[in-house]
Amino acid sequence: MRKTLIAIITGLMLCCVLPSRAQYNREYFFWMGRSCMMNNDYQAAIRTLNTLLRVDDEAYEGYFLRGIAKYNLDDLLGAEEDFSTAIRLNPVYTQAYTYRAITRSRLGNYDDALHDFREAIELRPDLPGPYYSRGVTRLLNQQFKEAIEDFDKFIRQENKVADAFICRGLSYLHLKDTVRAYENFNTAIRTNREYPNGYNRRGGLYLDQGRYEEAEADFNKAIECDSTYLLSYFNRALVYNATNRPMLALADFDKVIQLDSTNSLTYFNRAMLRTQIGDYNRALEDYDRVALYSPNNVLVYYNRAGVHAQLGEIEKAVDDYTEAIKLYPDFANAYIYRGRLRELLQDPKGARQDRETAQRKIAEYRSRLSDSTYSIFADTTQHFDRLLSFDSNLAGGSFERITGHNGGHEEMRLLPLFKFTLLRPDSVPVSGVYRLQRVEDFLKRIGNRALTLTCRESNIPADSLVIYDRQYAERINAGDASWTLLFERGITQLLIKQYTSSVSTYTSAIEQNPSNPFLYLNRSTTRAEMIDFISSIDNSYQRITIDSDPANRLNNNSKRTYNYDEAIADLNKAIKLFPDFAQAYYNRGNLEALSGRLPEAFENYSKAIELNPSFAEAYYNRGVIQIFMKDTRKGCLDLSKAGELGILEAYEMLKRYASADN
Q: 354: part of which helix (H) or strand (E)?
């Protein structure tokens, strides 16, 4: 579908124009945005189209193109919103219906997607594209007969598209019609002999039927067509495993991981294969990866427990069996093996309880053999060491996203606090936070070209910072103890990690100028960073490096929270002195979040956005907070807005969470 979305851009070169009232500069931005997209620079396209839409908020083609750019950045919710706006402005915009349908299909919203396809087809029944895309959606929605009808209609108009035959073949395969599936896969290969997916699909069918030699030949051909086509490496590894060639299978799994380092299914299969050949330590490494990427997968803990037991790590094995049982309480085998290990650990009571529980689960299972919904995990005849195919769904494939739960390694960090700090003059931003005249006046009063209000880290070398701090100290000792000089020295002391001295210096500056909100802002930030430094030493989870910003503590697995009350009190004072200071609300939101008060954090970010509707960092952090509060959809909408405003990290987050609530 991604290729289909990109293809529409070329068509727009011929058929899309701005409304007649559009001036030359608007048309220029439209064409520039499209050009950026054709060069795959989607973020630049969004920035350009934002300019267009600020000038002409009724340019429906601009929303449409921006929707395509967001789609290609995996911002599906943002894309859906832009396509919807294009449709609202132009209710007969066929392409917008089609691509909103494609986006909704990826989000798993098949009913609304099919409604959009119906609208598109009613508007332009002569266009073949909507039939193909609707066929794909129906295939995903397991409406196989209806999908075949759509592919038939598409193929009658476009008979040179290999993917149409592949999808129709898959539909027949799901209907158990392997003969027609073969026919369609063969036709796909004849249509495009350089397209790897045709060989891969036919090879998969051979593999399912145990025709390993023919399957291997097809996978080899697919790899010959595209050496980066990971599906064929994965499937060929299954052939090698089935034909007792484990080292070749491992080599292909290695290649898949090289191409996709987060593919948990491949780590899972490689772990089982390494276990089978006795490579237990490396198998543990793979299971650890699967536990990171799929922390709710019960089989990860069950299988890893067996490896720990083989290595004599009995306590770790018991912990893993316990985790498997926690995830699936009917897992009889896990009780049986945990009971045996508890006997080795001289825990007869625990062993007896596990045996009794296992027997009860087995009895329940046997009494319900006629019930196909009853879990295989209560069947002690089951073995869980069979390699899984690529379309398998690892149990618990989604991450647990709440702090302190399993899967705490998941990266979900707040953007840092704002503060006045030093940047090289050539890297100081020229726009953004300087819109407030009061901030500009303050910067002019200090008179340091390197001083800026930002959430970025200082890029001044450490040795230079030490020199600056020494110079400030000499001037202060010589009698120049003005509040402005004290403020500058407070900054250098913070940057060289002299937290206590920095707080003291800011306090001296505040005593001279108690009505200046910016002094309180920086003292607050210093106090927060000092707390983070202390927590990094005090916490049982020792970090290799100490993060410079306390917001990153949101990822910590520790149950302990630290008291940011003094830092928040400083922000309260800054806000009282300067009620329109959006960065102060933003910082207070961060500290409320770190204190575990997420609703209060949400309110502060919302206030910051109210004061500055273009506050990208506030949208990002509010999105993160909403995801933590399990309002994933609204969180992703905020992340989408942050990405639209230039926060690149937002798109990485959206790749993981955009479809989590659908």
A: helix 348-367
Task: Determine the Cα–Cα distance for residues 218 and 228; give it in Å rounded to an integer.
Answer: 15
Residue 568 has a pLDDT of: 94
DSSP string, 410-458: S---PPPPPEEEE--GGGS-SSSGGGSHHHHHHHHHHT-TTEEEESSPP
pLDDT value of position 24: 45
For residues 309 and 321, the answer to whether their CB atoms sit within 8 Å is no
For residue 590, count other CB atoms closer than 10 A to its CB: 31
Counting Cβ atoms within 10 Å, is residue 174 exposed (0-12), middle (13-18) or buried (19+)?
A: middle
Q: Which of 289, 296, 326 is nearest to 395 (CA)?
A: 296
Look up residue 372 and give its DSSP letter. T
The residue behind tokens 């390993």 is 212
What six digits make up the tokens of 358?
């296992």
Three-state SS across 516-544? Answer: CHHHHHHHHHHHHHHHHHHHHHHCCCCCC
For residue 288, which phi and psi values (nearest 5 degrees)? -60, -40
Which among 603, 607, 599, 620 has a CA at the least distance from the CA of 579?
607
Distance CA 359, CA 341 (A): 17
DSSP tag of 155: H
Distant-in-sequence contacts of 23-32, Cβ < 8 A, 24+ apart: 25/55, 26/52, 26/55, 26/56, 26/59, 29/55, 29/62, 30/59, 30/61, 30/62, 30/65
Q: Which residues contact 469 (CB under 8 A, 6 or more apart)?
A: 489, 492, 493, 496, 498
**Rounded to whole angstroms, what are the CA distances from 596 to 116, 428, 475, 569?**
42, 33, 42, 17
| Ranges under pLDDT 50 in the chain | 3-4, 6-24, 371-374, 380-381, 393-411, 431-434, 536-561, 662
CA 294, CA 426: separation in Å to the nearest integer?
A: 44
What's the pTM value of the predicted model, to 2 decimals? 0.59
Largest Cα span, the chain: 93
- Do 593 and 625 contact (CB within 8 A), yes or no? yes
| DSSP state, residue 406 | S
> If DSSP codes are grouped into helix, strand and coil, which group holds residue 176?
coil
Cβ atoms of 565 and 597 closer than 8 Å: no
**Contact indicator for 357, 335 with CB cutoff of 8 Å:** yes
Burial class (CB in 10 A: 0-12, 13-18, 19+), 259: middle
For residues 154 and 134, the answer to whether their CB atoms sit within 8 Å is no
